TrEMBL record:
The keyword ATP-binding applies. One of its GO terms (molecular function) is ATP hydrolysis activity. This is Putative ABC transporter ATP-binding protein. Keywords: ATP-binding, Cell membrane, Membrane, Nucleotide-binding, Transmembrane, Transmembrane helix, Transport.
Amino acid sequence: MGLQVAKHNKRNQRLHQHGCISDAVVMTGMVSMELVYIPLAAMVIFMILILVLFKKASPVSRTIQTRVDRVNRIVRESVVGVRVIRAFDNTSYEQKRSDDTFVAYADNVIHLNRIFAMFNPMVWAIMGITMVAVVWFGGYLVLQATTQIGSIMAVMQYTVIILMFLMMSAMVIVMVPRMIACLERISEVLDTAPEIADDREAVASPSVKGSKLIVFNDVSFSYQGAEEPVLRNLSFCCEAGKTTAIIGGTGSGKSTIAALMLRLYDIQEGQILVAGNDIRRMTQHDLRESISYVPQKAFLFSGTIAENLRTGKPDATDADLRQAVKIAQAEAFITTLEAGYQSPVAQGGSNFSGGQKQRLCIARALVKKAPIYIFDDSFSALDYQTDAALRSELKLAMKDACLIVVAQRISSIMDADQIIVLDNGSIAGIGRHEELLRDCSLYREIADSQVKREG
Ligand SMILES: Nc1ncnc2c1ncn2[C@@H]1O[C@H](COP(=O)(O)OP(=O)(O)OP(=O)(O)O)[C@@H](O)[C@H]1O
Ligand SMILES: [Mg+2]
């Protein structure tokens, strides 16, 4: 008997200190075996309610997540594209698009809160009914003289503790569907394996030497999910000390070739060799270290001009920067800036003109000093004079480098040692300007159209 009382007291103490639900149930049973069924029944009903809530709230929570994505996208587009929106006088359309997105999001959140709002009174109703049941049956048992009033009071206390536990856990559980939706999104991002990974047996630091610096062997490539290949059976080679130009209509695959050289995508067929090494067997670091790239869309980081120029070579000296800037024909405009090389660059380089940005991107690539340079339509925003001056200085300064120049203007590439004419992903002709004028009808067409336009 003494042992039982000690156990009872210990359990009671633990219950009040830590609040353990099983203790509360056991204590109720110890006080009255007849009344324990009431909180147990309440527990079952409560759990069913939580299950229903979980099932109803889960899909809504998930939709909320996709709506939040959409809201973010629309807000970003409206902010970044504000000039285009104003220029096209599209404000009312954009406003409607934003409104629709926000309303859809708000509808979802209201729906979810309605479900929770319904849940709340039900919880209180269950609590009330349970208490009434305890008092009712307890009173009946007292009248039958099978239990005492003190026991009813104790059972009521324990029932309150049990139901409070359940209510608290319900509060946490209703957060679970949203939590699961968020976790799924996070793990989706974390689990995404990079498509391009270094080969385990990649050749560490292969020397980028030899005359044939880039070789394409029967290369075909399609973007993921695309039906048609973008490039078909390309074979060509770019040599050190020579300029290879790539010309072709928009969407013919010129930028894709540049991206493949940098191994931003893996090819499906054929082989790309850089200095005799298959690029899939090289480490990405070594490959990209050997290539200096000027992207088609001039992109600058926020910071200063000098910081931007040092992107590819952080230890470049001031003299290196000056030399690159001189070749890139950017000297004149940088010297007119009050802070010169320390002038601030706004986000996305928005405080510079298109041509200035392009010249800074070219200078950035030149500072890096690599054996291979890729200029993806990098002279397009330059006037003819600047374009010509830049090309002649480039040729002089980069005598031993392999230059790959993607261009739309024939005048930018007619001096190239080799011109590749692309037609819808296939090579329509390879040769020098005069050879192509003679043998390649597509090149002739491009040349004729440009001569007519300029004439
Ligand atoms: N990331 C991508 N995902 C799917 N398709 C793409 C992607 N980038 C380009 N394409 C498609 O590949 C084709 C070639 O694009 P690419 O950018 O190489 O053309 P381009 O010759 O550089 O054109 P431009 O002269 O306009 O710069 C296009 O039809 C384009 O729609
Ligand atoms: Mg392009």
